[in-house]
Amino acid sequence: MGEAPLDALMSLDPETFARESRAVISFLAGYYRDVEKFPVQPEAMPGGLGALLHDTPPENGEQMDVILEEVWRHIVPALTHWQSPKFFGYFQANASTAGFAGEMLCTGLNIVPFTRAASPAATELESIVMDWMGKLVGLPDRFLFSDGGGGVLHGSTCEAVVCTLAAARDRALSRLGHEGITRLVVYASDQSHSTFQKGARLVGVPRSNFRVISTTAASGYGLTADSVREAVEADVASELVPLYLCATVGTTGLGAVDPVRDLGELARNHGMWLHVDAAYAGSALICPEFQHHIDGAELADSVSMNPHKWFLTNMDCCCLWVASPAALTSALSTDPEYLNNVTEESAAGAGVVDYKDWQIALSRPFRAMKLWVVLRRYGGAGMRAYVRRHVEMARWFEQALEADGRFEVVAPTRFSLVTFRLRPRRDGDDDAVDGLNRRLLVAVNASGRAFMTHFVVDGKFVIRMAVGGAMTEMRHVQDTWELVRDKAEEVGAVLK
Ligand SMILES: Cc1ncc(COP(=O)(O)O)c(C=O)c1O
User: Fold this and answer.
1) Per-residue model confidence (pLDDT) at position 47
2) Is the pTM of this model over 0.85?
3) pLDDT at position 1, please?
4) What integer pLDDT is reported at residue 358 of this predicted model?
5) How far is the CA of 351 from the centre of ligand 1 (A)?
6) How far is the CA of 2 from the centre of ligand 1 (A)?
7) How confident is the model over 284-317, as pLDDT tens digits?
8) Which CATH class is domain 101-376?
9) Is residue 92 within 6 Å of ligand 1 at its C-beta?
10) Which pairs from 138-141 meet CB under 8 Å and 24+ separation?
């Protein structure tokens, strides 16, 4: 085993950097070539990796080829292969050549743009790319820097949501005084992402003041303004203060859509902050045929979406736009002397974006580079074609299900997420059908030939087929349909 004890002293030597980076790239190219052949989800026993690797780090550095060999032999076989074209679970975490190139530039340059002074071009590129993305997804101008709003790149929607909740809280408490915090109420639906509940807790909203409003099949599992109004009015009558309402465009479980305009009007009437969470479906909004889903976004205070899901941008990358940057920065800004650069420009200061004041952490990567490279490399037309291809494949899968009398589609397929289950054959079969669907999902995943996840709605176990992988082609979706049919037959014998 090669020892390289002094390599840490020259760890950015350009020759070594080029050689070893090339080795990693050919390793990854080989992985992408073969990824389709791996079982999408491994059969990995808990603790299995610990048994294969040393239990202390090496004292002397090893050669990159030795390390890569170990990755291939021990780690890759126990991974769930998110880049497999047959990965249909959760929502995708897209990777692409441009996303990787952008990530390499971001990682290689390794600058830390927490203030504009700390890296002017990185800050400016982030503002430019946020305006680009805002225009692409059809946001109203008020979210663009060019119109007084603005955007920031976070690592995740969860971080973005906490920041908007803090901004909403501080806006309300400036009116109510700090004691008012116990009266603040946050509203979400039973389909909203769990991050809203966590975020509300983190910013000090009492747990008992988080309202989960029920949705039904009749509204496609979207909220109705009436149900929110009823909850809000009951709270107001109890002298509570409506603070924040979440509208989701493309919910995690079912891909449902809340009516943004109706909720926006209600939020305005009650002085609530409206956040539009389009973490997954935000990517589809670049296509004009999907933009009606954010009709009314001009009534929102903030909007977010994740290019790291379905927009060919490697992890991590979340776009957050706000109509009032001041509302965000007044909740999040700090002014330590050690970050104040003594330059004429910083003395001039006003209007300068210091992204540390738009997020929780101080240090931050150069994510703008990654998203900018993706946009430059594929362009709006390329990205629209990419999204539409998945939407088409999802529709094909949905039609195949509908044509086969044994299945039902549970929620309307609005984007590229299909939710389905084997249907009960007669009333009273519900428990048996749930068991059957569980077995179907287990059988599909155990085959290694596809990977899906599940959801439960109205007490029903539902299988989710999220189409959106960078390497997914129609043949993968068709093979997966064959697989689902075969496995349904295999497990179906159990139900009388
Ligand atoms: C609708 C929705 N909101 C929020 C999230 C959380 O996103 P993140 O993992 O970036 O925090 C998800 C994740 O799937 C989601 O689907």
Assistant:
1) 86
2) yes
3) 46
4) 97
5) 31
6) 43
7) 999 999 999 999 999 999 999 999 999 999 999 9
8) alpha beta
9) no
10) 138/285, 138/286, 138/288, 138/291, 138/294, 139/294, 139/297, 139/303, 139/321, 140/297, 140/298
Residue 324 CB–ligand 1 contact under 6 Å: no
What residues does each domain of the chain span? 12-81, 101-376
Closest residue by CA, ligand 1 atom 16: 252
Q: Two tokens at 85?
A: 């074209």
pLDDT given for residue 337 in this prediction: 87
How does pLDDT run across 191-200, given as a tens digit for each residue? 999 999 999 9
Region 12-81: CATH code: 1.20.1340.10
Q: How far is the CA of 125 from the centre of ligand 1 (A)?
A: 25
Ligand 1 contact, 280 CB (< 6 A)? yes
pLDDT score of 428: 66
Q: What is the mean pLDDT of the chain?
A: 94
Q: What is the token pair recorded at 310?
A: 């379905």
Buried/exposed 349-385: b ≥16 CB within 10 Å, e otherwise: eeeebbbbbbbeeeebbbbbbbbbbbbebbeeeebbe
Pocket test for ligand 1, best of 252, 275, 320 (most atoms within 8 A of CB): 252
